[in-house]
Amino acid sequence: MAATILYGKDIAQDIRAELANDVEELKKQGVEPGLTVILVGDDPASHSYVRGKERGCQEVGIRSEVIYKDASISEAELLDLIHQLNENPNVHGILVQLPLPPHISEKAVIEAIAPKKDVDGFHPLNVGNMMIGYDTLLPCTPHGIVELIKRTGTPIAGKHAVVIGRSNIVGKPVSFLLQQENATVTMCHSRTVDLAAYTRQADILVVAAGKPHLIGREHVKPGAVVIDVGVNRIETGKLVGDVKFEEVREVAGYLTPVPGGVGPMTITMLLKNTVAAARKQTA
Ligand code: GUN
């Protein structure tokens, strides 16, 4: 039987409607959630992502501001700007769009953001809290993936989840969150020998390798939930995931498309974090 296609944008829409209500409630209490995004340089993909974030904020009623800085900004100037935003009580969330120019340390920038305003969930304190299962600001893509899986109605507890990719932004954190949901998790990566031997055992397969068309029919257990986190632009200019969509939809139980799968969930989790941060900072 063909897979049910998991349109993240539809699920994201439902969550955004819930968030719009939360924002309205906060506004009645005199709190207007605010997100500030810092965008350094003129990378077209970054500009496009940031426009998506602004649109999302508008949709749910979050006040958003984008501070554009030239790629020549010094690290010290950028850190100074972050420190000012840390002190500003009207700014509940701060996001510095990555990547940054090579003369600026991403580590220094992430560590400069006040953990309570770190709506990306990238600060080491928030990463540590997530790892030990404390209530904290969770990284947006992994959190969005877990929400997507939950909204299929598939129980995660006891399932075998296989994650391909060990990045700090997706692979590592999603493996922790799935363990937190009581899945048995196997992590695979570019040096894994006989990838298919692992993936064929997966009830839940999360593919975040950044390799177009890595996963075909032969990698997938019939009925599995397959989440494709890949975003690859191929020679024709088309965006494709890491999964051979047409092939895998014939065997999987659920499958996310690219685009329109995980992507819209990521921004929605950013909005959710901003609302949560505003609530906490004003409680
Ligand atoms: N660049 C690409 N994805 C992201 C993200 O999730 N957060 C930030 N800050 N930059 C990004």
TrEMBL record:
Keywords noted in UniProt: Amino-acid biosynthesis, Histidine biosynthesis, Hydrolase, Methionine biosynthesis, Multifunctional enzyme, NADP, One-carbon metabolism, Oxidoreductase, Purine biosynthesis
Q: In which pathway does it act?
A: One-carbon metabolism; tetrahydrofolate interconversion
Swiss-Prot/TrEMBL GO biological process terms: L-histidine biosynthetic process; methionine biosynthetic process; purine nucleotide biosynthetic process; tetrahydrofolate interconversion
Could you tell me which residue ranges the Tetrahydrofolate dehydrogenase/cyclohydrolase NAD(P)-binding domain spans?
139-281
The family database entries (Pfam families) matched by this protein are listed as: THF_DHG_CYH, THF_DHG_CYH_C
Ranges in coiled-coil conformation: none
| Gene Ontology MF, one | methylenetetrahydrofolate dehydrogenase (NADP+) activity
Q: Which reaction does it catalyse?
A: (6R)-5,10-methenyltetrahydrofolate + H2O = (6R)-10-formyltetrahydrofolate + H(+); (6R)-5,10-methylene-5,6,7,8-tetrahydrofolate + NADP(+) = (6R)-5,10-methenyltetrahydrofolate + NADPH
What do we know about how this protein assembles, alone or with others? Homodimer.
Q: Which family does it belong to?
A: Belongs to the tetrahydrofolate dehydrogenase/cyclohydrolase family.
Q: Which NCBIfam families match?
A: PRK10792.1, PRK14186.1
* Descriptive protein name: Bifunctional protein FolD
